[in-house]
Specification:
Blueprint: H1 10-15, H2 20-23, E1 37-45, H3 50-60, E2 69-73, E3 76-77, E4 81-82, H4 88-98, E5 103-105, H5 119-127, H6 140-158, E6 164-165, H7 174-183, E7 188-189, E8 193-195, E9 202-205, E10 208-209, H8 216-235, E11 238-243, H9 251-264, E12 269-270
Parallel strand pairs: 1-2, 1-11, 1-12, 2-5, 5-6, 10-11
Antiparallel strand pairs: 3-4, 7-8, 8-9
Length: about 280
């Protein structure tokens, strides 16, 4: 792990390996107007997932430069792994931000402790995520407090503005949706879109491709979905892929991620979320 300290992209940046083929579109050598874009994100980034995040970054870097891999950072995963300023992991996070990677606030605890009143909310909480839809049942004031504290913590570490906020499991309740606009985040994302909370303007529509590793049935269904969504994503103006630390424990999922990203690289240019508004 120590060999990667201070930012995972240093080795590739110095040598140029892995960056040359894809850096030109974002450096002004040609415009991205009219170009199909690929957005790739790593979820649940934090001290407890450091090893898995390293593996995912290495896998994605076979196709996508590390500075085009968005990082969704959890301030205190399950109240067991706080992001501490001045720690070795905080130094790595700052290094990743300095390379130009998008950094998102990804909840606070990433754990759902709320009581859900409606049937639809209970269904989402129980079946769409393993108790990790933190912002599905929060009231406005609690959601806003966690959003603002998460942003302050992460920006204090990186020295840069975060790209936006993405709720754990992409699930937002009414309170969280209202808080998003009040918090002033530039971007937000769910399963079906990327939007600007302040104006409500939708920048991207379409499904995000992701995998589930909690059970054999979920693994099988996500592998099927990856194959079924391939033509849809290939035809999309903006294709999105999200990966999680749990993916590294399932070789079939890692192979599917590799195939899916490699296939989209034939038609899409790896891009940053923050370039969407431009």
């Amino acid at each position: 792990m120590a060999g990667r300290m201070g930012g995972g992209s240093t080795k590739r940046t110095e040598s140029g390996a892995g960056l040359t083929a894809h850096a030109a579109p974002e450096t002004g050598q040609r415009s991205l107007a009219g170009t199909k874009r690929l957005l790739v994100s790593i979820h649940d980034v934090g001290p407890r997932s450091e090893g898995a995040v390293d593996r995912l970054r290495d896998l994605l870097s076979r196709h996508v430069p590390e500075d085009r891999q968005a990082l969704l950072v959890v301030p205190d995963h399950w109240a067991e792994a706080p992001l501490v300023p001045g720690s070795p992991f905080a130094a790595r996070l700052r290094g990743w931000a300095e390379t130009g990677a998008d950094i998102f606030v990804h909840g606070w605890f990433h754990k759902d402790l709320a009581t859900h009143d409606g049937f639809g909310a209970r269904l989402k909480a129980q079946h769409m995520t393993a108790g990790e839809g933190e912002f599905l049942g929060l009231d406005h004031s609690t959601a806003l407090d966690r959003m603002e504290r998460g942003r302050a913590l992460i920006e204090g570490i990186t020295g840069r503005a975060v790209t936006g906020f993405i709720a754990p499991a992409w699930l937002y309740g009414d309170g969280a949706k209202q808080a998003l606009g009040d918090a002033g985040f530039a971007l937000a994302e769910d399963h079906w879109k990327v939007w600007q909370p302040a104006s409500g303007r939708v920048l991207v529509r379409g499904p995000v491709l992701t995998w589930a590793s909690r059970s054999r049935a979920r693994i099988a269904s996500s592998l099927f979905a990856a194959r079924a969504l391939a033509p849809v994503l290939s035809a999309s103006k903006v294709a999105r892929i999200g990966v999680h630390p749990g993916d590294v424990g399932v070789p079939a999922i890692l192979a599917s991620i590799d195939r899916s990203v490699g296939r989209l690289m034939r038609s899409h240019v790896p891009s940053r979320y923050r370039d969407l508004a431009a």
